[in-house]
Amino acid sequence: MKLFDQGIPVDIMTVLNGRDKRANFQEKLLQLYPNQTIIGAKLNIAGPIKNNSRISQFFQTQMAVFESLLAENALTFERKGDWSDAVTGPEYFYVVDQDPLTVKKLAVKFEEAFPARRLFDIDVHYLENNQERAVSRTELGLARRKCLICGRDAKTCGRARRHQVAELEQRTAELINNTLS
């Protein structure tokens, strides 16, 4: 079975609605936990299929590793949202009792530990002067994400639509299948 043979295709409006839902949920968490750091974890999956049993299995097994990494570093955390069945792709949300820079450093360490984890997008949010802020990789002095296909800046490739969806799906399937096999 090919990775993208199963799942419900989503259109751009569904993806945009999912982004709004995510932003609203993170904002709600920040209001409920203003002195804590919020983590939003999801996968960057190109194409219309964003979730199925295999993608969800990959996400959940790798997030268990991420939770272990948080625990090993003595971070107190609680999962506050589990959208592992979302048609727009699996997502988890956490409240963490630690400063946002430390949390982002661990998130990047996780994302860069091996190639398949480059599919993860772990955002770190916090309140500063009652304003929501996100910690970027560049704030930590790190390079921007690299494209899975060519190694250039990922955002530049995405905006320029430099690669075909089929090419991105093939690379994504290789990464996920190699991890789960």
From TrEMBL:
Q: Which UniProt keywords apply?
A: Lyase, Nucleotidyltransferase, Transferase
Biological processes per GO annotation: prosthetic group biosynthetic process
Q: Name one GO molecular function term.
A: lyase activity
Q: Does the keyword Transferase apply?
A: yes
Q: Which reaction does it catalyse?
A: apo-[citrate lyase ACP] + 2'-(5''-triphospho-alpha-D-ribosyl)-3'-dephospho-CoA = holo-[citrate lyase ACP] + diphosphate
What's one Pfam family here? CitX
InterPro entries, sorted: CitX
**What top-level branch of life does the organism fall under?**
Bacteria
Is Glycoprotein included in the keywords of this UniProt record? Answer: no
Q: Which E.C. number(s) belong to this protein?
A: 2.7.7.61
Identify the NCBIfam families for this entry.
citrate_citX
Q: What is this protein called?
A: citrate lyase holo-[acyl-carrier protein] synthase
**What is the organism field in this record?**
Lactobacillus corticis
